[in-house]
Structure prediction request, 833 residues.
Amino acid sequence: MNAFYVTLISFNAFCFLAILLSGIRKEQPHFIGLACINILLLSFNLLSLLLLNTTDLQRAILLSKYHLSCLIIGIPLYYYVFGKWSKFRFTRQATIASAIICLPLLAYNLLSSFSLRYGEAPVLVEYVTLFGNLANVLTGQSNAYSAILHVVSSVMGLFLIYCSIKLYRQRLTFVSLSLLLTMLLQVSFGYTGYILDSQQSTFVYFGGLPMTVMSIFTVLHIAYGYSRQSSKLIIEKKHRDELHELFEQLARLSNESGNEDFFIDSTRLLAGYCSADFALLGIIDKADATQITTKVAVKYQETISNFTYARSGTPCEDVLKTGACMYSENVDVLFPDDQMLSDENIKSYVGYPLTNENKQPIGLLVLLFKRTLPKSNNLGIVTDVFATRLSAELRKIQLEEELKATAYIDYLTKLPSRAKLLHVINNVYSKQRVNDTNSLLLLFDIDHFGEINSKFGYEVGDQVLKIIGKRLSSYTSHSVFIARNGGDEFAVLLSDIKESVDAVVNTHWTAIKAIVSSTYLIGSRKISVTCSMGAVLLPHKLDEHFDIIGSAELALTVSKKDGRGHYRFFDPQLMSKLSQNRNIELALIEALNKNKELSVHYQPKVNIDGQLVGAEALVRWTSKELGFISPADFIPIAEETGIIYQLGDWVLRRVLYDMLSWKEKGLVLAPVSINVTASQFDDESFAEVLLDAINSFDIDASLIEIELTESGLLIEKERAIAQLSILRGHGFTVSLDDFGTGYSSLSYLSALPLDVLKIDKSFVDGLDDVKDKELVKTIIAISKSMELSVIAEGTETKHQVETLYNMGCELFQGYYFSKPLPAAEFCSWLPKT
Ligand code: C2E
Ligand code: CA
Ligand code: CA
Prediction:
C-alpha cells in the first residue's frame, strides 16, 4: 500500500513539473493551474499515506484537516483549469464563486477542533486492507458542513462533465475522455470512501488517484502534441529545403543555360518537382491568337515534340483570360472539349499565365496530372515562381530580338548595318570553309566626303548617302551582300567566288564606281563624287586576331594615300607596319613624357668658303626598346597621331636651351633653323608660343629660322600664312624646305612670306641629269627674282658644291661639310666673342 502511494506521489511530482514547464513555455495559464492542482494532489496523497499509517487520534484529526484543505483549495482551481481549457465563457465568474463558497468551508475546517469531514468525535479504526497490511481510518458522523462540501463537490463534478463535453466538441477528444474517465473514477472512489468510512470494506482509500490519472493523461496529451508538432515541423522543414533547392536550381539554370535550353531545363525541372505527367510551356501564336504552340512539351519528364492546339474549350483559355487556375480533380469532366485531357486521362490541372511587360498574357505554363491533387499543396506557389521567371526570360529574348532588328538596319540608308555585316561575315566564314570557295570584302568610301558636308551642310551629305544606299540596294544579290559600315563607308561582301579573285574585284570595282559616281541631284544642286576602295580576301583558316573589316579599312586608307579614285588590296605587311607604328607611337609618347632618349643634333650651313652661316636643328631618338629611329620614320607618325605638337615644343625648347648655354659660354650664336611641319600650324597658338619661348630664353628672333616642308602647306594655307607673317614681323626668317618636290606653283610661292628656298637633296643627287640640272637652275632663278636666298641640302661631294656654286647657289648644307652633330660637338663651330 505504501509503495503504491509512493508511486502515486512520484507521478504527482513528475506531472507537476511536466505540466508546469509546458504551461510556462506555451504561456497557457490553465496548465499552470493544473500544475498547482498536482501540487495539491501530491500533498493530498502524502497526507493520505500518513493518515493511513497513524495510530494517534489527535494526529489523525490534524492530518485529516490538512487532507481536506487540499481538496477544498482544489475546487476553485478545477473550475479555473477546466473552464479555461474547454473555453467556458464564465470561467472567471465560476472560479470566483467557487472560491467564495470554499473559503468559509476551508476556514471552518482548519479552525474547528475536528475535521469537517468526520464531524465531532471521530474515532480511529484499525483494519486489514486488501493489500494485507494494517491501516487506520478515521470515522465519524458527518454534519451539515460536510453535506455542503458534498454538494459543492458534486456540482463541480457536473461542471467537469460539462467541460468534458465541450472539450470533445473542440476535437480535444483525448482530454475530454480522460476527464470523463476521471469523473467516473472519482464517483467510484467517492463511493469507496463512503463505505470505508462506514467500515464496510477492506479497501484502501485512494482519493487522489482519479486526478492523478487525469494529470498523467494530460501529460500524455502534451507529449503527443509536442511530438505531432515536431514531426509537422520536420515535414515542413523538408518541404522548405526541397523548395529552396528547387529555386536554387532554377537560378542556376538561368545563369548556365542558353536561352532555349533554359526553357526546356526549367520546364523539366518543374515537372520533376511536381511529379507532373505533362508540363507544357505554350505561347500564343502571333499569327492566330486562337492557337497556342508549345515552346516546350514534357511528358513523363522527357521532352516530346512541340505541337499546336486551339485554346477554346480548354482550361488554358481560362488561364489566359482570368489568370492562374488550379483544378485538383475532374478537370477532364469539366472540359469535355479538351481532347488532350480525355485522351491522356488527365484528372488535375495547374496553369499560370506568362506575361509581357504590360502584364498581358503571351503564353502559359501548364502542369497536367493523371491523379487528383491533395487539397493543400504548394504547386500554385511553385508554378507561379517558374511562370514569373519564364516570363522574364521571354521578355528578355523579345527585347534582344527587337534590339537586334534595329541594330541590324542602318537608320539612314536602310541598308544592313555594321553589326549585321559582322554577323554575315561570320556566317560566310563558316560556309566558305565547308564549300572551299573564296569570299571578298570590299570597303569603299566617298572621296572628300567631308567637303560635301562642310560645303553644303550635313543634310546634303545625308541625302547623298541615302541615294547611294538606294542605288546599292538594287545591286544586292544572293552572293553580294551590301552594308553601311559607318560614316561614308560602305561594305560589299562577295561570297562563293569561284573565278579569279582579281577579275571579280575589277568587275565589282567598275560597277561600284559607276553606281557611286553618277551625278546626285539634290534640290537644284548637282553633285558628283568619286570613291576609293580597299579589298581583302577572307582567310580560309580562321585566325582570331585577323580583323577583316579593320584590314579592309587599312587597305582603303592606303589607297586614299596613294591618291584617291582607285582600289588597293590588303597586304599583310601593311598590318605589321601598322602595329610597328603603334609601338613607335607609344614609345615616343613615353620618351617625351619622361624627357629621355631624345636629343637634338645640329648640321652646319656654310658658304662656299666653308664658313658657318647657320645650322639646322634635327631631332634624334634612340629608343631603349626600338633602337635608333630616323626622324623620317617617326615624324610622320607624330604628325598622324598629333604627338607632333608636344615634340615640336620639346625641340624648340631644347634648341633655345642649347643656344642659351652657348651664349653663356661666350660663343657667337649663328641662326638655327627649326623644322616645322604644316600640321603644327593647326595649333592657332603656334606663333604665340614661339614668341613666348624666345622671350623667356632671351634669344633674338633673327637667330631662329622656321623651315617648312613644302608638301604640307597646301592644306590650311591661310592659317599658315597668317602665322608665318606674324613671325616674320617679329624678325624670324622663314625657309621653304624640299623645294621642288611638292605641288608648289609660282603663284603659290609668291603668296608665302618667305626668306629662303632650300633645294631638295634629290635634285642635288641628280645634278648630272640634264632635266634635274635645268630644274635647279630654274629654282635658283626664281629665288633670285623673288629676292630669296637659296641653299642646297644634301651636298655630299666637292663636285656637287662646285656645280651648284657655278649655278648661283652660294649656301650649302651636307655631309661634304659636316654631318649633323651633337650640341657639344657643334659648338666648336661657333666663334668666340
Ligand atoms: P630635312 O628637313 O630635309 O632634313 C635633312 C635631312 O637630310 C636630315 O635627315 C639630314 O641628316 C639629312 N642630310 C643632311 N645632309 C646630308 C647628306 O649630305 N647626305 C645625306 N644622305 N643626308 C643628309 P634626318 O635628320 O634624318 O631628318 C629627316 C627629316 O626629318 C628631315 O628632313 C625633317 O623633315 C624631319 N625632321 C628632323 N628633325 C625634325 C624636327 O625637329 N622637327 C620636324 N618637324 N621635323 C624634323
Ligand atoms: Ca629641314
Ligand atoms: Ca629637306
Notes: The longest strand covers residues 612-623. DSSP finds 27 helices and 26 strands in the chain.
